[in-house]
Amino acid sequence: MKIAFTSCINITQYPNQPWWKDIEEQDPDYLFLLGDNIYMDYPLLKEPFKYELKLMSAINYQSKMENHYENQFKESSFKSLFDKLNQENRLFGIWDDHDFLWNNSRGLTLLASKDSLKYEIKEKIDISRRLFHQYFKNCSSNLPELYYLIDTPLARVIFLDARSYSEKAGVNSLLLGNTQFEYLEKSLNHDRKYTIICSGQTLTEKRERDQIVSKENWSGYPMELVKLCRMIKDMSNVIFLSGDIHKNKFVAPVTLSDIKRIVKPGNVSDKEFKTLKTPIQFISSGFALSMKGVLKNWAMLNIDDEGLSINYFKKHSKDKLKTTLDIDTTNQASKWLQENKF
Asked: Cα 98–101–104 angle (5° rounding)?
């Protein structure tokens, strides 16, 4: 079973995206798009760009979002791959901030703000949700939510919504919220060999080189990260897929107490904090972004009865229309998987 995955796709910057052909040529069984499938806040380049979207009427917001989606889904290389996989229900997605609303947007915080009515926040979130389901052909098995699951022959895949029910980062702040965590806990009970958890945000990584707590990953929400790690601590073969950070990255399991500058929640013991670990993380994002160091990243996760392997891809050094194997990241992941017999 082959699962291609990537994230961060900006049709305005890249109206032609030939790299989808490289994915199609490898004939994946599934394609997972892990957030920022469009960029609502581009080309609003001047800060604070989000205020232009805030001040925009809901009707104009809808028109702008429809235009982004329409352009992305009619791009010829993407459309060829989408049509092929979607006919057999093999393409799935989630959103992150840029296709939820705008950069760093958090649903609960925005809805609770005194300006919520003034800026039509609820109406805009409802528009974003409706259009996501419209263009992704209602891939969610848990409508109208964007958190849902699918069962493949070898793995249960759980897609999480880290935007709708999240608050401003903090030790005890919500990222998924209680109802979604209840759904996750029930979903972890299954008979497949592997569990794949997909989130737009990484558990521990950010764009900068150093591993450090960030408001834009799960480590900025320590209590929610603790809850996740508690749920999976006695499980085997749990895999975490994410995007967001505009790079390819493999991250081996990390003990929570070893995450740089993370704050231990007060109701979690020192012993538990030094015991709980994250699952392995496979990260790939920046598929179609015009930014320094962003290298048209995507990855192919391979699962069969013998085990698991992964190949990472990046921009071809000589051919702008192609991608090529990301040897360093692939070797790093492969070495760990072999040594740990995953």
From this structure: 65
Q: Angle formed by the axes of helices 178-187 and 222-232, to 10°?
A: 20
Instruction: End-to-end CA distance of the chain: give it in Å, rounded.
Output: 16
The DSSP secondary-structure symbol of 229 reads H
> At 229, phi and psi to the nearest 5?
-65, -30
The set of residues, in sequence order, having a beta carbon less than 8 Å from that of 189 and lying 6+ positions away, is: none
Residue 4 neighbours by CB under 8 Å, 6+ apart: 23, 26, 28, 30, 31, 32, 298, 299, 300, 301
Contact between residue 4 and residue 32 where contact means Cβ atoms under 8 Å apart: yes
Residues 219, 276: contact at Cβ < 8 Å? no
Beta strand 91-94 pairing with 30-34: parallel
The confidence score (pLDDT) of residue 44 equals: 62
Residue with tokens 């699952």: 279
pLDDT tens digit sequence for 247-296: 999 999 999 999 988 999 999 999 999 999 999 999 999 999 877 766 89
The pTM (predicted TM-score) of the whole model is 0.94
Catalogue the long-range contacts made by 334-340 (C-beta closer than 8 Å, 24 or more residues apart): 334/309, 334/310, 336/250, 336/252, 336/280, 337/307, 337/308, 337/309, 337/310
pLDDT digits (tens, 9 = 90+) for 84-117: 998 888 999 999 999 999 989 999 999 999 989 9
Is residue 248 a contact partner of residue 314, using CB atoms and an 8 Å limit? yes
pLDDT bracket for residue 211 (50, 70, 90): very low
